[in-house]
Structure to design on (542 residues):
């Protein structure tokens, strides 16, 4: 068989060659007219939380910018956003504002107190509500940034890409009148809010610390958490009521619930190498591991330190991008004493100015204000990541195929390390149970038990063999939403249904009434028949 050329096509179909050429030219011109839109869309990224949230949104902004889009970030910058880290020059413009210095100091004090609670096993719903209350206060200040908001409104952005952890980003988009794509930096913790199908028999809810393999009591716990979650969500949403009332006129006040459903697209910073398999909706995508990249060469100082480890190798210790030190001296002592019992070298991210004077650093430990975690994880002598269990850290460990020991503190960290353990790429120690002996023993167990490394390598192979890398997945979906004028074609009709229709309560009620009426009629008919059969008239005739 011969390939069909343009001339063959024209001859076979009976279409003149000239007409075929004109049609090809028209298609080409149409494509070229659309091409500038894809390559030059105006995109606003919004980030109001520091730490790993900023690192994720910065990477997303860089990906969009490097592919020809006009990107600007609206950033809330403040003390403690990334302790010990010097922000590199931004290739895209940033509109930033800072909170009041006095408030920031008080906020940092409260954050430190919460850290102490988490380290001793305290903290729960009240801590979450307190933190969300702080975000509400900050949101009120953000919406008062009239100069920045007016400037952004005049820029007429095609789309906003926002950190959906903070509901204030939705309110800003609503204020500016910009459609938005929501980036959720954790796992599927807000799946119920977005109405993602969540079968309770095998999809564990956020904060249950369950796996997808639940026994009866696990499913019972999951169901009870499902009922309680609606109450918690309403409580959190109500914190923003005063902000909405102040900044939006009567008659056009949005609700946090509706703003979650209004997102053109939801993108989650997760993938199914570690996440349990579950159903998703068409407008829900995932880009887990977008920060994980091939390792770059380390500094000579680090290479010299690592070289001293010999065959034992080294481990990296970091408890999160926003936690530069540990506020409990006893906890530092236990960790430091545990490191002294292992043969590996230890590179520990800890702000040196905050190191307790009464604790002498173990001889195999190197303290650093900041470290390039991704590059260290890719080093051939790397053995173990000791981490708080943040999702970015877990995904970097998956990418490089290295085992993990988690010390979860708050948020989604417990859920993440539960998945690490379920996938057999590591384990975790609750912070209130960490002592030097069990800490050292667990480190050695994870390093010396080859099954953890084998599982991590298997997950790495799965991760690297996905059809599309996360940056391309992000780029193509954002461009698709812009080109198609929104994501309405991906949204299920359930978003427009009242809750009683979505859960088929009206149908259940109708069927229940029909069954009840039918049963009542049957019982009544039998009673009448029995009465007639046993009536006195019948006995007299006999």
């Amino acid at each position: 068989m011969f390939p069909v050329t343009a001339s063959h096509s024209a001859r076979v179909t009976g279409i003149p060659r000239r007409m075929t050429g004109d049609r090809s030219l028209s298609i080409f011109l149409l494509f070229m007219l659309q091409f500038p839109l894809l390559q030059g869309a105006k995109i606003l990224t919004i980030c109001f939380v520091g730490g790993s949230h900023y690192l994720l949104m910065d990477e997303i902004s860089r990906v969009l910018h490097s592919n020809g889009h006009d990107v600007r970030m609206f950033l809330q910058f403040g003390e403690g956003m990334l302790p010990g880290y010097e922000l590199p020059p931004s290739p895209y413009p940033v509109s930033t504002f800072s909170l009041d210095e006095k408030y920031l100091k008080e906020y940092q004090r409260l954050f430190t107190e919460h850290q102490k609670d988490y380290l001793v096993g305290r903290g729960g719903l009240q801590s979450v509500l307190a933190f969300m209350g702080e975000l509400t206060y900050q949101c009120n200040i953000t919406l008062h940034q009239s100069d920045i908001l007016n400037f952004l409104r005049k820029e007429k952005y095609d789309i906003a890409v926002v950190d959906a952890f903070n509901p204030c980003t939705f309110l800003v988009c609503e204020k500016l009148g910009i459609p938005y794509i929501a980036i959720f930096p954790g796992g599927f913790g807000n799946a119920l809010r977005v109405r993602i199908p969540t079968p309770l028999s095998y999809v564990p809810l956020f904060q249950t610390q369950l796996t997808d393999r639940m026994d009866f009591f696990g499913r019972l716990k999951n169901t009870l958490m499902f009922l309680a979650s609606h109450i918690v969500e309403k409580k959190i949403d109500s914190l923003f009521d005063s902000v909405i009332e102040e900044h939006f006129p009567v008659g056009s006040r949005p609700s946090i619930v509706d703003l979650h459903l209004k997102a053109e697209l939801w993108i989650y910073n997760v993938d199914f190498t570690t996440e349990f398999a579950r159903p998703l909706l068409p407008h829900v995508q995932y880009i887990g591991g977008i920060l994980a990249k091939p390792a770059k060469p380390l500094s000579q100082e680090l290479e010299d330190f690592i070289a001293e480890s010999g065959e034992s190798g080294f481990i990296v210790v970091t408890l999160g991008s926003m936690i530069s030190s540990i506020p409990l001296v006893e906890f530092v002592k236990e960790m430091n004493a545990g490191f002294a019992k292992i043969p590996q070298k230890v590179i520990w991210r800890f702000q040196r100015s905050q190191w307790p004077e009464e604790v002498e650093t173990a001889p195999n430990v190197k303290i650093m204000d900041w470290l390039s975690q991704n590059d260290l994880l890719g080093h051939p002598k790397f053995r173990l990541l000791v981490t708080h269990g943040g999702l970015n850290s877990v995904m970097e460990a998956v990418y490089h195929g290295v085992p993990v020991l988690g010390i979860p503190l708050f948020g989604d960290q417990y859920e993440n390390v539960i998945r690490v353990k379920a996938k057999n790429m590591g384990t975790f120690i609750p912070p209130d149970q960490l002592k030097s002996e069990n800490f050292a023993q667990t480190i050695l167990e994870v390093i010396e038990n080859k099954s953890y490394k084998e599982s991590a390598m298997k997950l790495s192979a799965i991760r690297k063999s996905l059809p599309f890398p996360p940056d391309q997945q992000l780029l193509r979906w954002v461009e698709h939403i812009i080109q198609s004028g929104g994501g309405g074609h991906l949204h299920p009709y359930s978003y427009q249904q009242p809750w009683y229709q979505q859960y088929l309560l009206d149908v259940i009620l109708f069927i229940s009434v029909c069954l009840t009426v039918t049963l009542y009629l049957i019982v009544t008919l039998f009673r009448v028949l029995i009465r007639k059969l046993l009536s006195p008239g019948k006995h007299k005739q006999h």
